[in-house]
Design a protein that fits this description.
Helix content is about 55%, strand content about 15%. By secondary structure, the chain is an alpha+beta fold.
């Protein structure tokens, strides 16, 4: 029996049944006797359960479980990719919405949670788009109402500005008619009345001209403009008015600078700023006009030594017919802002160290 087991064990481990629930695994190593005859050798390696058939079943089940786990892994990978596709597309839709595109929609072809999520997102985008449209419509209505209110305000201001000189003209004409009827019209009185009449008519013409300039600004006719030339022309034109008020008018030249602008509109805006500064400067004060530039930008400024502009008024000084000065028409600064915005620039008012006001126009030169 030993030789038989040894011969069998040469090919590998041999299961040796035994009594009870245990058996033996035997390994054989060939050995030679004294006479050179191969006898064989067997070694007891260990004891294992006697139900080897069950072990074979377990091995087959292990293989089956391994195959099942591998199959589940493959299905999981494919399922993740299947779910990731709709989610990636949904993320792209959210990115488009974040950039402001409310017309984009998610694909609703996917089934399950991805499809329900896509339909929910689309419903939300539909609602947002409707709300945005309603807000824009409300803003448009508000702008129209504001424009009508502004127009009514302009009309009321214009009527007020014209009414006073027209009343003076009417009274002068009635006085001259009475003098003529009484035959006592004196040449000197008539001359004074006519001069006053002419001044009132000129004031009406000025009001109408500024009103038209504000209400219907003409299209720009831009070109390269030298800031030094504009400042020099305005300072020269306003020199007489400055002398009459006892105010010094000084130019503070900066480096050579050219801007792409409508020269007439720019001169008109700067003239209004200088006239406003002269009107608010005390006798003996100084109005300064200057500019600076560099890196494709420029700054143009006008400052006075007046009382300055209170903080609560700064939000209104550019409104039409708003004026701190008694008798002021209140369109000058509105025309300035209109011209500045039409060029794509910006304007703001600051305090000076002396307590006056400093108006600053800033923008791109637009000229290489």
């Amino acid at each position: 029996a030993v030789l038989r087991v040894a011969d069998l064990a040469r090919a590998g481990p041999v299961w040796v049944p035994a009594r009870g629930r245990r058996g033996r695994v035997v390994a054989a190593v060939p050995a030679e006797g004294r006479d050179g005859e191969t006898l064989g050798l067997y070694v007891l390696v260990g004891r294992l359960p006697a139900d080897a058939p069950y072990l074979r079943v377990l091995r087959r089940q292990g293989v089956a479980v391994g195959a099942l786990v591998f199959a589940v892994f493959i299905v999981s990978v494919l399922g993740v990719r299947w779910l990731a596709g709709p989610l990636d597309r949904l993320e792209a839709v959210v990115g488009r919405v974040r950039e402001g595109d409310l017309s984009v929609r998610a694909e609703e072809g996917a089934w399950g949670e991805a499809g329900r999520l896509a339909r929910g997102v689309n419903a939300m985008l539909d609602r947002i788009e409707r709300l945005v449209a309603e807000v824009r419509d409300a803003e448009a209505r508000a702008r129209r109402a504001e424009e009508l209110q502004s127009l009514a305000h302009l009309g009321g201001g214009l009527a007020h500005e014209i009414k006073n000189p027209l009343t003076t003209v009417r009274l002068l004409i009635e006085s001259m008619v009475r003098e003529a009827r009484d035959g006592g019209q004196r040449i000197e009185v008539a001359r004074q009345d006519l001069e006053l009449l002419a001044s009132q008519v000129a004031k009406i013409d000025e009001v109408l001209e500024e009103f038209v300039a504000y209400a219907r600004p003409r299209p720009l006719r831009p070109g390269p403009v030298d800031l030094g030339d504009v400042v020099g022309a305005v300072v020269e034109a306003q020199a007489v008015a400055a002398r009459e008020r006892g105010v010094r008018l000084q130019a503070f030249p900066g480096p050579p600078a050219r801007v792409w602008a409508d020269r007439q509109r720019l001169e008109q805006a700067l003239t209004n700023l200088v006239a406003n500064a002269l009107a608010h400067s005390p006798p003996g004060g100084t109005v300064r006009v200057g500019w600076s530039g560099g890196d494709g930008r420029f700054t143009l400024w006008v400052e006075d030594e007046g009382e300055g502009i209170p903080a609560e008024m700064r939000g209104r000084i550019f409104e039409p017919f708003f004026s701190k000065r008694e008798g002021g028409m209140g369109l000058g600064l509105s025309i300035v802002r209109s011209a500045v915005l039409q060029h794509g620039w910006e304007i703001e008012v600051e305090d000076t160290a002396a307590g006056g006001a400093r108006f600053v126009i800033r923008g791109k030169t637009g000229v290489d």
